[in-house]
Amino acid sequence: MDIDAFHLILLIVSGVAAGFVNTVAGGGSIFTLPALILLGMPADVANGTNRVGVLMQSAAAVRGFNRHEMLDHSAILPILLPTIIGSLIGSSVASVIPAEVLKPVLLGTMMTMTLLIVLRPSTIPNTNEPVMSMQQRPSAAAWLFLAGLYGGFVQAGVGFILLTALAGVLRYDLLRANALKMMCTLVFSAVALAVFIYQDQVLWIPGLIVGVGSIIGVQLSVKFAISAKQSTLKWILLSMAMLVCLAALFK
Questions:
Q1: Which residue spans traverse the membrane (predicted)?
Q2: Is the pTM of this model over 0.70?
């Protein structure tokens, strides 16, 4: 696939935005997925290619959080198990749905998630309560499975489902919840990417370009994950998502 200067800049900028937004809260694929579709990819290939950048940004974010000792290593395995199972199911379903059906589903889902993020601030609870275990809060497993299922299928906005489980149910503060969120995203994105590679639905050059941009975004945001103003970020996210998704629909 040929990439001209305009699309190169579009992919890098969308990657930077996605890396920043995903590390602070979530929803970064609202930028990258429409950008890939605007490049002329079928929706299923764009969905698979998007996972390359997500995997790269997640690895960079986990490394950053771990370096600042904000990653709860003891919680990783119990949290990952339901997430991985959901991701396998979600990505398998997405990989076999025809592109002409998948495109409106992806864009419609992204807009729905964006409106939910803006209209319901409680999607991202902020708490300093004592952390609960998975045994104490078994409902967290259902939320994590749902996050994996949704993340495997479409990715966009999955961070908010993960934060609902990690901060809202298990009561992690926002910084440590974001660290665990990025670990979950790293693992289920690897699972989903493997499925899309098997289905030959990944274009590596655009995916790597987005990935490079997303790593830059991660580097800009890790140190400011707690102090970022969520309300301003959400309204900017909504505005950009509407413009880019509308453009992709009329491509």
A1: 7-31, 75-97, 104-122, 142-167, 179-198, 204-226, 233-250
A2: yes
